[in-house]
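Regression test case RT-17, inverse folding.

Input:
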């Protein structure tokens, strides 16, 4: 389905408002960005723009009202941070692939890692997610460090990554 001219104009206004440059708007309305997207500390409950691929980093960290990652990029070339998004309860909608680091640390209402990226080239952190009760859905291989420290509701490491190229940190759990 193609965007109407009015919808495209409104989307371009949003992209300008959030200072997103070097983009391509797909026919379906998703936006590919050749570079970074920093939406940190914004006051929206859902992402106002639907993203496709982002070659740089993508950050929505400390968006205290964000309730869903629906519309987040399908893939991110560098890092993806949604740390401190206190209203997130799952990672559904997160990228399937992150070339660098992934952090959902401090998402105090996160109860599931469902939707977590399948591939993470750097570190993966779900530290201080105090309601997280399972490591199921974590990528099987992580290119850097893995940390779930401070996840006090975890009762086992079942579902933890099979291969971690960096350190494995789960202190202050169980």
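Golden output:
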């Amino acid at each position: 389905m193609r965007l109407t001219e009015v919808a495209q104009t409104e989307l371009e206004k949003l992209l300008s408002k959030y200072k997103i440059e070097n983009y391509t708007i797909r026919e379906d309305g998703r936006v590919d960005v050749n570079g970074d997207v920093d939406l940190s500390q914004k006051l929206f409950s859902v992402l106002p723009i639907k993203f496709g691929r982002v070659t740089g980093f993508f950050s929505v960290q400390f968006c205290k009202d964000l309730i869903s990652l629906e519309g987040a990029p399908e893939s991110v070339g560098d890092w993806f941070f949604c740390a401190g998004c206190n209203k997130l309860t799952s990672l559904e909608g997160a990228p399937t692939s992150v070339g660098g680091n992934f952090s959902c640390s401090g998402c105090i209402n996160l109860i599931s890692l469902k939707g977590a990226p399948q591939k993470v080239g750097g570190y993966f952190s779900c530290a201080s997610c105090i309601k997280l009760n399972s490591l199921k859905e974590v990528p099987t291989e992580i290119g850097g460090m893995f940390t779930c420290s401070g996840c006090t509701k975890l009762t086992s490491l079942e579902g933890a990554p099979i291969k971690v190229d960096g350190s494995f940190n789960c202190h202050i759990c169980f």
